[in-house]
Amino acid sequence: MTSVLLFILAILLAPFYSAVILKVKAFFGGKKGPPLLINYYTLVKLLKKGSVYSTSTTAIFKIGPMVSLCAAFTVLMFLPIAGQPPILSFQGDVILLLYLLGLGRFFTIAAAMDTASPFEGMGAAREAYFPIICEATLFMILILFYVITGELSLAAYFSSGQPAGFWQAAGAPLLFVVLALFIVLLTENSRVPVDDPATHLELTMIHEVMVLDHSGPDFAFIELGSFLKLFFYATMVTRLICPVTIGHPAADLVIFLATMGVVYVAVGVTESVMARYRMDKVPQFVLTSFALAFFATVISLEFLK
Amino acid sequence: MRTDFLEIGNGKAVDRDRIPHLAFDDFRSQAMGIVDGGGKVVQYFAYEDSGGIKLLAVLRTDRLLAAGCDAPEAYPAMSLTSEPFHLFERELAEQFAIRPEGHPWLKMVRYHPNYRGREDVFGNNYTEDIPGNYDYYAVDGEEVHEVAVGPVHAGVIEPGHFRFNCIGERVLHLEIQLGYQHRGVEQLLMNVDARRLPIIAEGIAGDTAVGHGLCYAQAIEALTDTTPDAGARIIRTIGLELERLQNHVGDLGALSGDVAFLPPANYCGRMRGDFLNMSLWLCGNRFGKGLVRPGGVRFPMTDVDRETLAGRLEELKPQVRHTMELLFATPSVRARFEECGAVSTDDAHKLGLVGPAGRACGIAYDARRDFPTEHYAQLIIPENAKSTGDVYARARTRADEVLQSMDMIESLLKDPVQTQCDLPSEFKPMSSAMVVTLNEAWRGEVSHCVLTGADGEIVRYKVKDPSFHNWNGLAMSLRDTGISDFPLNNKSYNLSYCGFDL
Hints:
The complex is a heterodimer. In chain A, 72% of the residues lie in helices and 0% in strands. By secondary structure, chain A is mostly helical. Chain A has one domain (2-304). Chain A starts with a helix and ends with a helix. Chain B has 16 helices and 16 strands. In chain B, the strands form five sheets. In chain B, strands 1, 3, 4, 5 and 6 form a five-stranded mixed sheet that branches. A four-stranded antiparallel sheet of chain B has the order 2-14-15-16. The A-B interface holds A 25, 28-31, 118-119, 121-122, 192-193, 196, 198-204, 271-272, 274-281 and B 145-149, 154-155, 169, 256-263, 265-267, 270, 330, 332-333, 335-336, 340, 482-488.
């Protein structure tokens, strides 16, 4: 029951947290920024609208947003929120989740290619390239976690006090993992310095350009899907940097939500204090996450012996 | 080299009979000789005169040189060896159906029928949309693709078509197609009521209202032998420098926004507004429209005005300086700006780049220093030349000019010279005269050339915006550059569509 409630809470809160990033960026830019509820207004606005479909697109274009949203929902069901066990869990679910997110991306890319727009093709090529490196990083982290816990499920990694166990087992190298995971978060969610979610320039976009042709409810699905995806990655980072559980669900939830806020603020600060990388430098940046995860794993494995 | 070209002054009227009328072959070889020796083309155009078509060229070395000749129907293109003539010859072919034989890229410029009603050089009948009878450059092969952008863009900007030939993320060639904004400005300037002229001149390129307005006013003053008083000259100088500040500051902010570095983008956006409001205070228009008129300025400057503007400037100066420091001291911004879209000095000379774009490539030319008008002869204009020719050099040049312009305005505001604003309402230009005016607007050299007939009527009004030179610089910048860096390069030039299209 608690798991289902937390699942619903996560869906409801994800748009709020994304707006925190906008507020932080506005603060650095000396502006007031949009209201914290802006994303809810946007979603409601989009859901009220009709969708426009180009005559050159096929059913793939309409399926894309739904598949990516459903993938995000499903992934969230496996995610232990605030240390509570998730709704679903089984041995090996991590691998399923990684590829569920991959499936969502595949359909977004397919929908983008379906429009036959040269912009969207370019965006799709970039979107397909960078996550490959992220995948290598995530699997490297997975190897480390598997060796420490002997399990292959998110529930085993992030429920109750387990993240603290990682710190006990791996020690300082886990800092590398946190950093690597943060880089993956930035890359997978099209944040600065990899992508610029605020730009209006199609030629420089990665994720945004792929969804240019979606409108109305379809676009709302995509937006909600991306809020949930960011929430998913932020939860993992949060549990790693704040692995404490008091044992009282409400108190744990408060600690969790506060730390989530810190992670989102960190994303906002990152976006405010640096420019995005030149497109051909992005792979080097993402590869850094792999290097970090690799070293963390090698050092920890040696240490565990 | 000996030349028959006549030395003329910037904004000085000359009797048309005094301009050397050469045989075409002499004209061609001497013009090419001057340009090959490092000269640049300021104006090169045709006009109708007593039934025939004549050519007139105004070239610049460290002096302004002019000569004319009878126009042939066709002639061997000068662009073959003297590249700076390239676009001028295309314009000539389009306006007067004079064919430059063997021209390396004989393509229409603005897409309109020629003024003479002759057979079209480009084989267009102008019933089709742009580009008519013209095939864009195309590339073919594995991994090669074309991206077409515009003419309708995703922002509120002017129309222009960009065709990228790419291999993967790398641009092999960018072809820029303009002409969507062609309004027939030059023809309009010859045919409308004289009272509308300043308003049309200010509207040639809306972001260079003072620059074009000044060129027009100086031309009319030269033709009527009028000299504005010292106070008016100072106010005009302030107006032109304010225009420079507004645009440079706005563009530097936009450059910062394009690399997703938001703080300077936001600050610059606000400060641009502050500079626009200084123009508003000066003349009641944020873009400086209505400030400059032949004979002087329409609005005087009182001591209160000087104090107000000086006070605002004093407040803005440290803010601007800090923002520039923040922008250029951030490593991730430097990483994006440096070595992005570089144009070599040699290419810049051949393209004839002007203004900050030219100075970024090492061409120190600045009309404010080399052919000073208004109050500029009394001011020290630094050289500002950079050597790298990349986005960083263009941004840095513009940032340097921002700081210098603020100093200039500050010193000018300390000079309490009065001006009379009783402008003459009627002008009677002298008969059969020619005048060329050059001013360094924020984009670079703006030039107007006016020819009058026997009764002092305007028989030819030629306008040249700096964008006419610099659009091909942008195309050159994109060679072998990532396509995702196009917006950054585009903003570092920020060229005018309507100023080019006329």
